[in-house]
Amino acid sequence: MAKEEQLFISVQIDEHIGKALAVSLKRHGYDVVTTVEAGLLGASDSEQLAHAAATKRAILTFNILSFLLIKLFFSFPKKRKVWLENFLDAF
In sequence order, what are the residues at sequence separation of 6 or more whose Cβ sits closer than 8 angstroms to the Cβ of residue 45? Predict the structure, then answer.
């Protein structure tokens, strides 16, 4: 696909999603990087998110719960300590 027709987002594919998807998307001209290509194999979800944000990429993942918790944690800075304590008490 031509540069002007390129998908409006760039994607970072998490390590548990099959490599075949990344290969196929790249073959069709999409801007995709895998966790391995980014040097983030085994990195925490927070590190993955920081890298995606720094490189202006969306994350494609099956690990929705972890990223939702990170989002909630950083969305409410004034309640962060109480929220984290309550979350940890649940386990």
Answer: 63, 66, 67, 70
Note the pLDDT of residue 91: 52
Question: Tell me, what's the pLDDT at 50?
Answer: 86
Element of type H or E holding 11? strand 10-13
Report residue 46 as tokens.
Answer: 């927070």
- What is the distance between the alpha carbons of residues 2 and 44, in angstroms, rounded to a whole number? 34
Alpha-carbon gap, residue 13 to 34, rounded angstroms: 5
Spans of the chain, pLDDT less than 50: 1
List of E strands, 19-61? 32-34, 57-60
Angstrom distances, CA of residue 20 to CA of 52, 62, 87: 20, 15, 36
What value does the CA radius of gyration of the chain take, rounded to a whole number of Å?
A: 16
